[in-house]
Write a sequence for this structure.
């Protein structure tokens, strides 16, 4: 199964081009990426009045940032990226001056290996030990040396209980139910999420090298394709609450929001397993306001503050004690806060090896083509 | 041009339905944005009844407003400066001859066919190499560089249509080159200058890739902000800002067209 470049999807070609151009350019101009320095413990007071945050748009409660400014005197400037890959490409091409970035789990590992992250010295912060036990040692940052957890979520599926009456509880039942609702179902436009779910539906492990299993996953997703109204990773809240789709692959927080608009919405944590994704705060190399960045990290480890972020975004966080400040209705809803048993089904997913990733790309291209 | 035969495209079969379909295709998305800006729903893409609520809350969305302001504060000076630089280039290249002219023209036009991503990453690498921080001035500079080849096109074609005899006559009558420039070249160029400025304005407002790489934390433009919304989904306020950006330039364009039309009519009347 040798992979030809022409078989790659356009999206991945673009991403590949982006990263390789950035790397080539930075090598060409002999741009030495500065060593991650290990300067300093927790600052006693802010230095200067600015903090440059590099984040997705609309991914942190604006009121929370206003309160941060009111309490610390530090003004927050927001730079925006549209994907982890693009943020990486920009920092690799030499962009400097961002004090805080918000990389997703797997990206933390990549950036740390490339020397793009600074040590944060969390244990010297007043709130430095507020992390929930299960968020202290993620695979991408053992002991949380480079990052502080922000929000996390799980990928399962949502449905309308007045339309879908079979009560599906697993990926197996999810895929089996799709043909009953032609033109009313949706899955993510995401190679890894979709193929992983398909593999799980018949008991195979994600990132498997077993070609027979991958072929089976490919046959499965190709067989349900005619029943999908769209393949999309965004806009699903509206699709579900309005009934445009009655059965969709969804994040738990997004489903919670859809539920607010339509009480028939149900979220399922599939019993055959699902990915747990986590976003994190980190300090990249070239940060200008490191002291202010640390004050920000400490602020976001305060249970009350991170709870406000969770209340606004409808995704849970990794800070112990924040439960007290969560909206009661939200906390009571398992779509927002899974039970311990449901949470245990979630697995933090490291990226597959390059070899497996190439196989995934072939499956995905065959599916979308 | 010639009246040999009364052949016209409009006589082709099916031309009317095709024309109407094309217009619908062009304008339906714009109307959709307009209509959805009056959507009551919390979700930008599902209809939930008529309401003007997002028009009243848009001013509270400080990040969105700030990015719209950044976009405008880049696009306006960019349009003016790019049009001026393009005029200089067009006049200068017009005076060169033969191979030199071809070479210079190719040099100006080359960025039009280069993938923008290459220019964008290259610009960022250049800035970090010389230690230029990513601020307003660096983004403006990158936008001007990007717009000049586009701004060059209408001015160049307008200059080519000029009747050289006018300039010769002016010089024969003793006008200095500055005077020829101010009294003849510039007035004749005004329409081309306007269209080149408008073109640059639109390209700058619309630009995503270059801005994505060259913008700093204080210079997030509107397209970048909108693309970054993928994480939690777009707020309906995005439709409002799109609608406003649609209505305001359209009104401006209408005013401009009426103004030129009345002026032309009064000129014609005067000439008679």
């Amino acid at each position: 199964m040798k992979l030809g470049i022409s078989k790659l999807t356009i999206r991945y070609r673009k991403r590949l081009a982006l990263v390789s151009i950035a790397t080539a350019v930075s090598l060409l101009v002999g741009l030495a990426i500065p060593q991650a320095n290990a300067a300093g413990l927790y600052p006693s007071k802010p230095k200067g009045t600015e903090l440059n945050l590099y984040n997705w748009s609309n991914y942190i409660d604006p009121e929370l940032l206003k309160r941060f400014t009111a309490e610390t005197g530090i003004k927050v400037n927001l730079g925006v990226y549209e994907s982890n890959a693009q943020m990486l490409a920009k920092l690799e091409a030499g962009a400097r001056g961002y004090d805080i970035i918000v990389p997703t789990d797997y990206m933390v590992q990549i950036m740390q290996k490339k020397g793009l992250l600074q040590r944060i010295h969390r244990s010297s912060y007043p709130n430095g030990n507020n992390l929930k036990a299960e968020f202290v040692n993620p695979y991408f940052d053992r002991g949380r040396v480079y990052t502080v957890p922000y929000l996390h979520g799980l990928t399962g599926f949502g449905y309308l209980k007045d339309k879908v009456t079979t009560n599906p509880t697993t990926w197996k039942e999810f895929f089996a139910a799709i043909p009953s609702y032609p033109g009313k179902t949706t899955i993510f436009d995401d190679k890894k999420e979709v193929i992983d779910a398909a593999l799980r539906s018949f008991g195979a492990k994600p990132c498997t090298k077993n070609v027979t299993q991958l072929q089976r996953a490919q046959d499965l997703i190709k067989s349900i394709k005619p029943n999908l109204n769209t393949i999309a990773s965004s806009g699903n809240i509206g699709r579900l609450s309005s009934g445009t789709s009655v059965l969709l692959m969804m994040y738990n927080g997004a489903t919670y929001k859809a539920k607010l608009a339509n009480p028939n919405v149900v979220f399922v944590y599939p019993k055959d397993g699902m990915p747990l994704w986590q976003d994190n705060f980190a300090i990249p190399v070239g940060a200008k306001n490191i002291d202010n960045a640390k004050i920000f990290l400490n602020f976001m480890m305060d249970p009350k503050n991170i709870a406000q972020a969770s209340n606004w975004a409808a995704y849970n966080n990794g800070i112990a004690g924040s439960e007290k400040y969560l909206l009661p209705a939200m906390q009571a809803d398992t779509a927002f806060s899974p039970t311990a048993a449901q949470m245990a089904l979630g697995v933090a997913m490291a990226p597959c090896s390059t070899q497996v990733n190439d196989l995934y790309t072939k499956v995905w291209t065959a599916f979308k083509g | 041009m010639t009246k040999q035969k009364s052949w016209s495209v409009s006589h082709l079969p099916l031309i009317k339905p095709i024309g109407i379909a094309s217009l619908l295709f062009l304008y339906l998305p714009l109307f959709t944005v307009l209509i959805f800006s009056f959507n009551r729903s919390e979700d930008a893409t599902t209809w939930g009844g008529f309401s003007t609520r997002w028009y009243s809350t848009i001013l509270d969305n400080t990040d969105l407003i700030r990015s719209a302001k950044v976009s405008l504060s880049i696009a306006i000076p960019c349009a003016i400066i790019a049009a001026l630089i393009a005029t200089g280039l067009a006049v200068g290249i017009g005076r060169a001859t033969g191979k030199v002219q071809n070479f210079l023209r190719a040099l100006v036009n080359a960025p039009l066919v280069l993938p923008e991503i290459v220019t964008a990453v290259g610009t960022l690498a250049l800035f970090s190499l010389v230690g230029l921080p990513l601020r307003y001035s660096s983004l403006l500079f990158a936008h001007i560089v990007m717009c000049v080849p586009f701004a060059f096109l209408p001015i160049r074609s307008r200059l080519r249509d000029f009747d050289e005899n006018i300039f010769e006559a002016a010089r024969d009558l003793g006008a200095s080159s500055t005077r020829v420039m101010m009294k003849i070249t510039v007035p004749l160029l005004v329409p081309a200058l306007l269209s080149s400025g408008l073109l640059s304005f639109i390209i700058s407002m619309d630009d995503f890739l270059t801005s994505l790489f060259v913008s700093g934390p204080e210079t997030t433009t509107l397209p970048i902000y909108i693309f970054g919304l993928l994480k939690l989904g777009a707020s309906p306020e995005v439709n409002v800002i799109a609608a406003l950006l649609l209505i305001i330039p359209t009104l401006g364009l209408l005013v401009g067209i009426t103004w030129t039309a009345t002026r032309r009519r009064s000129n014609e009347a005067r000439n008679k």
User: Anything to note?
Assistant: The longest helix of chain B spans residues 237-271. The radius of gyration of chain B is 23 Å.
